[in-house]
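User: Sequence recovery, please. Input:
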């Protein structure tokens, strides 16, 4: 047993060493914190395609050649995934600023401390590359950047300029800067996200978290409800949450359909810190990352002030606190 463990550890060490030089700018899957010994289950828990073909692509991106799905190969991939070091071949390449470990509450001072330029114009580029739209140097925006920098998750702007994060168009683009962001209470992430999404449709702060509560912290079933959009059209809710299992492909399809129509959608997500969470998805950036408004964030201002990329926030699709991941969502269709 000890020999097998030592061999696995050595293989993992060699894999990590080989990848360091070539993949320093690569993007990684979120760290897997679950208890399954199956790489397929672990990938699905994080919202990734667990198929053999995709595992072969992931293996190749991580220096595991000739993938055949052997126990040794799968164990190596799982160990990398548990360490947060499994490269995602579908994620855009990017590099990050070093993690800031100091005590300053100033993003400018923190950037200077890690050897980066800290002027306003460069901070605006950094903000854009990390899904923080319309950077004006507000306290909320600077706090968001500082949080990422402390985690070592602040993306450096690319050499050809920053990403261009933007809402998806339609009602989302029209209202994102007009509707207030509000933070969830304990365990009300779905109800708070639902309220913000409906407000985004209506272009006004009509609803609060309490309006979407059924009892306690539970979001009420909104299926079939209709709301008047700020464009004069009526939108009906499709509510697939709670016990709904669904699939990753269904959830991604619903998200992409919503964004193509310029509408927000509330989606189930997970991270290493939170296996069960809900966010509002409002668009994509130029790298293809989904842009979200996360009700768990501290901050104020409009929803536009709180937009960030899903990757930089460390989220993947699906609720990971079930034996089988649940891929729920709350979407809106024009009627």
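Assistant: Recovered sequence (335 residues):
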């Amino acid at each position: 047993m000890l020999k097998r463990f030592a061999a696995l550890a050595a293989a993992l060490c060699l894999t990590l060493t080989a990848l360091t030089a070539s993949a320093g700018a690569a993007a990684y899957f979120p760290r897997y914190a679950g208890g399954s010994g199956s790489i397929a289950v672990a990938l699905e828990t994080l919202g990734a395609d667990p198929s053999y073909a995709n595992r072969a692509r992931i293996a190749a991106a991580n220096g595991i050649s000739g993938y055949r799905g052997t126990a040794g190969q799968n164990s190596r991939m799982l160990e990398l995934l548990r360490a947060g070091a499994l490269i995602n071949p579908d994620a855009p390449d990017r590099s990050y600023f070093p993690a800031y470990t100091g005590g300053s509450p100033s993003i400018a001072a923190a950037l200077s401390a890690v050897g980066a330029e800290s002027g306003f114009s460069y901070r605006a580029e950094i903000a854009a590359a990390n899904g923080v739209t319309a950077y004006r140097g507000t306290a909320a925006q600077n706090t968001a950047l500082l949080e990422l920098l402390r985690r070592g998750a602040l993306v450096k702007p690319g050499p050809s300029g920053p990403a261009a994060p933007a809402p998806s168009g339609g009602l989302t683009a029209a209202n994102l800067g007009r509707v207030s962001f509000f933070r969830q209470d304990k365990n009300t992430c779905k109800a708070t996200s639902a309220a913000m999404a409906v407000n985004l449709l209506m272009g006004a702060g009509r609803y609060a978290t309490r309006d979407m509560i059924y009892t306690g912290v539970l979001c009420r079933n909104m299926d079939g409800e209709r709301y008047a959009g700020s464009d004069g059209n009526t939108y009906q809710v499709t509510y697939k949450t709670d016990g709904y299992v669904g699939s990753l492909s269904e959830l991604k399809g619903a998200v992409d359909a919503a964004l193509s129509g310029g509408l927000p959608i509330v989606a189930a997500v997970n991270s290493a810190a939170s296996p069960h969470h809900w966010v509002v998805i409002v668009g994509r950036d130029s790298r293809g990352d989904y842009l979200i408004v996360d009700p768990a964030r501290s901050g104020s201002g409009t929803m536009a002030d709180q937009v960030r990329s899903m990757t930089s926030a460390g989220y993947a699709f699906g609720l990971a606190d079930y034996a089988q991941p649940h891929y729920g969502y709350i979407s809106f269709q024009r009627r």
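The domain at 166-334 is CATH 3.90.70 (Cathepsin B; Chain A).
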